[in-house]
Amino acid sequence: MVPVSSYMLLAAGMFSMGLYGVLTRKNVLGILLSVELMANAVNVNLVAIGRSLGDGRGEAFALFAIALTVAEVVVGLAIVIFLHRSRRSIDVDQAASMHG
Amino acid sequence: MKSQALLLLVVVLPALCAGVTGLIPYVRRRGMLAGTLSSLTVLATLVMSLVLLGRANGGEKVIVNVQWMPEAGKTLAEFGLRLDGISAPMLVVVSLVAAMVQIYSLSYLHEEPSESLGRYFTWHSLFVFSMQALVVSTNLMQLFGAWELVGLCSYLLIGYWWAKPSAGKAAVKAFWVNKFGDAAFLIAIILFHAQYKTWDIDALENQVRVTPPGALVVLLLFMGVMSKSAQFPLHVWLPDAMEGPTPVSALLHAATMVAAGVYLLVRFFPVFAANADALTVIMYIGIFTALFAALTATVQTDVKKVLAYSTCSQLGYMVAAVGAGGKLAAYFHLTTHAFFKALLFLAAGSIIHGVHSNELPAMGGLWKKMKLTTVLFGIGVLAIAGIPGFSGFFSKDLVLEQLEHHTVVWVVGLLTAGLTAYYMGKAFVLAFAGEARSDGAAHAHESGLLMTGPMVLLAVLAVVAGFFANPFARLTHLAEPGFHLTTTGILALVLALGGLGAAWLFHGPRAKDPAAVPGFLAPVDALVKAGLVDRFYEWSYRVVMLGLAKIIGWVDRYLVDGVMNLFGWVALEGGAALRVVQTGRAPDYVFAVVVGLVALMAWGYVGG
Amino acid sequence: MSWLPMVPFALLASALLACAWCVVTSDDLVHSVLWLALTLVVTAGVYVQLQAEFIAAVQVLLYAGGVAVLMIFAVLLTKRLTGERIPHESGNRVRAALASLSVFGLLTAFILRMPASYAQPAQRSATKVLGERFLVDYALPFEVLSVLLVATMIGAIVIARKEDA
């Protein structure tokens, strides 16, 4: 049998890579992809722990999380398109309008 | 009805009435309607109080405590009602005098604008509520709240004619002097709680028997009594309070509110008695006030001022009696004094109503115009002078007997009794005997039934209340009075008769100048005119208060403001320094979030 | 032999991490998206190994199918609008590597401190258990989720539509 901690280590690795992507990518779409990676890692965790508990709760949450991620991707992409149309760029470094 | 419900109604009904008359504009703008409503309410309160007194007389005791927002065995505050031998008579005195005074006011103030009258009766109802709440309190916080409310009502009613500058000043003065005492009172309450961990009066009284409180705490508590019951040197507000309408003086500043201090002394007697030194101080302050105020009263020309100083003096008697350990004597004198002093004030109001002047030298010969008022005022004078058969005789003798063991105090007490008879006799003779000395006095007229009715009832009580001493003692479980003709009684009687005789001699119709101050009182007159006490307060205000204010002003300007400016500078500079961090670039913010996450996780790893 | 079941897991795990690495480092945005799709499919394989077949199916259908297609669509759309290659280089790698490595290290520390546990062999069909969960315990959140999806759809249309439309 494979211990649950192995799955969790795998998820931790994927999560950290996603984090690395979020921090290095300068492009909004790239950041979105990395966030997807992180969400996927969380799902792996949920399913693995849910299986070890054996009552279906973890899987249920994973399914909720997948649906929510889809919703998030849809909104995120809409924002990307909106940004692109209004600024002709999706580079976050140029989108420094938050600077007070 | 059950006693608990009656007790609650006695307290709540006047509050409801104050709410109705104060908040519903229709009622407030119709003064007579508000007055009728208020009078009926307080009459209902009176009936219920009498029922309660009967039950208390039958030995019934009720203590109800309600917790406010209880949680996990603790409570924010407690409210309680208490019926016992001490609270029941006071409930009756308050509602009885209040009822008489309100009915009297309906006629006495009928020329006032309707709207001000609505205000007047609202304050009156509020006062009855606060006073009853004070009387039935079971814990110190409730008592203090009611105590403050009573002070507020006093302020509002003294300042009833607020358009008059003197009335406004008098109201503020009363408020400040009372606040001064109340601050000490509050500190005392907090110190008591710190020492005994309870607000409950019964629990407190049980605990002081085990561990007596310090003299300082007891005297701080007594400061509250001093300001409310106008004891020297905190008596200065009471004569000025006469700026209020005369019925207000009768109710608040003669019968009930100023008696609240004495009531507190009686209620807390175990606490005061637990410290013998404090009790002695209380006795000396009381007897000094009695003498001082009586001397001052002899040279007053304003009839209300005479009565005001007389009230001070009588309250001094009560306080001295408590100080000598005679709380029954004090409480009994409180009830009889409430009746005859309210009567005297109402009768004085009747005179003022007829003559349109407060000045005794401007009166004279009124017995021809106002026969009923003459008789009623006369009964009041005989009662306060302590002539046998009238209530004052019994209660004053009881007080003086308590003082027998302290020779100096006893002698001063007797002397004061003589002085009391003298100045009251003087006021009576000046007002009613001889010939009219002014146009107002010549055209005076008797007052209407609404005014004389309450006075007659109070006069009856002023005569017969003295015979209730024995049931009163049994009721209050204080001590049995023994009535027998003692040296004290005979001496007091002789001095009282002497005082009345002197009044007739110096101020009667045969005197050369009835209104003049007799030679032997000239130094007193000079001293009173000098107004030493008020001057002392003025001086202390100028030197102590303004000096203190300057110091505090300096501290505020340079220390407090300096610290504040430092904070402001730090915030501004820190903001400027941190501004660099705010790049406005999203990845930097994400990085900050990650750093926070790492820190949290590290903390969780090490701590968990 | 206790290490035998570890072999397929190790294979899947290394493939997954390799794909993920390519997602975050690939120079071309289109390649990144394709790597992501592959990552998601491999994740479905992990789910199968965990005996969570239903989730694996959802993963392939919804994620690898729907999301990946949507992303490619978005990438191509922005490319068409700008008419040039989208810059996809990365900056400040050292800072990012430090941060993500410390997160990984801490996560690993936490996981290693945990008591060992194993996935329970499915007595009943895991899908059946899951269905009961959804329609009994989580019926309300399930319905709320459908409302959320509708709201998302409307919101996306409102944000992305042309201003003059």
Question: If you had to describe this structure to a student in words, what would you say it looks like?
Answer:
Chain A is an all-alpha fold and 100 residues long. Helix content of chain A is 78%, strand content 0%. In chain A, α1 packs antiparallel against α2 and α2 packs antiparallel against α3. In chain B, 75% of the residues lie in helices and 3% in strands. In chain B, α4 runs antiparallel to α21 and α17 runs antiparallel to α19. Chain B is globular, with a radius of gyration of 28 Å. Chain B starts with a helix and ends with a helix. By secondary structure, chain C is mainly α. In chain C, α1 runs antiparallel to α2 and α2 packs antiparallel against α3. The mean pLDDT of chain C is 81. At the A-B interface, α1 of A face α26 of B.
Strand content of chain A: under 5%
Radius of gyration based on Cα positions of chain C: 20 Å
* Overall number of strands of chain A: 0
- Say what oligomer this is: heterotrimer
Order of helices and strands of chain A: HHH
Distance separating the two termini of chain A = 55 Å
CATH class of the largest domain in chain C: Mainly Alpha
SSE order of chain C = HHHHHH
Strand content of chain C: under 5%
Q: What is the end-to-end distance of chain C? A: 66 Å
* Helix content class of chain A: over 70%
Number of strands of chain C: 0
Structural class of the helix and strand makeup of chain A?
mainly alpha
What is the typical, i.e. mean, pLDDT of chain A? 82
- Sequence stretches where pLDDT stays below 50 over 5 or more residues of chain A: none
CATH-derived topology of chain A = Helix Hairpins
